[in-house]
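Render this sequence as a predicted structure.
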Amino acid sequence: MDRRTTPANARAAHDSLRGQIEAPRFTAGEPAQVSLPLVDLLAAPGGARDRQLLLGDGFLVIDRHEGFAFGRAEKDGFCGYVAEAALAAPGAPTHWVAAPATHLYSAARVQAPERAGLSFGARLTVTGAAGIFSETTEGHVPTQHLRPLGEVFADPVEAAMLFLGTPYLWGGNSRSGIDCSGLVQAALLACGIACPGDSDLQQAIGEEVAEAELRRGDLLFWKGHVAMIVDATRMIHATGQFMQVVVEETRTAIDRIAAQDAGPVIARRRPR
């Protein structure tokens, strides 16, 4: 089983795996919520970053041990470890950050000290309004930077374009740093389209399309890389070649990637 999508470690497993694997114990899991602006989802306790989670993301805890919680990210099913200190009891988010980035302010004033920076996709519980700010359980946020949960983008390319110039970061999922699959996931989730966290997993979404039928929002896959079609000649992707999110001529990118021995395009998918 793929460890990234299997809610089990050496100490415990989710109830859904009963009869499929052996485990010291099975559990229904403990719902929790990310309480920090950004937290790494790790492959092992204190290990390498697989992905990142944002403020308000749901996390089903399967096991706790020595300061780390193992579990499953509710937004995409990705399993791994987060620091226990980054989790809190589950809340009831009402809005999400639909701007590339914003700040949590200590008061409803533009001059007020900021408490933290938040990325596109972070989830908040709005409790009231104060001028141009929304009052939340975490602080004050400019209302124009928020959308109610369920109010989504119509065009994933529009969402992806908000990340132009964002630094490349392996396993990144925020405006502070993002990788190719993180960019695609952020754009699709913003449109209400389910999307896994890694590019190889993303190859299973939607339907295969022919090269001649590619259109805006379709995905191109290489081994270990993914990009999104912008129009007939261009694509957008987060790439280590330029260490940022860029729009690039599609044919130029295909030729360059092939010349770097990364191989040809291996799939063309249309998310649904």
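Summary. The longest strand covers residues 58-65. The domain at 95-148 is CATH 2.30.30 (SH3 type barrels.).
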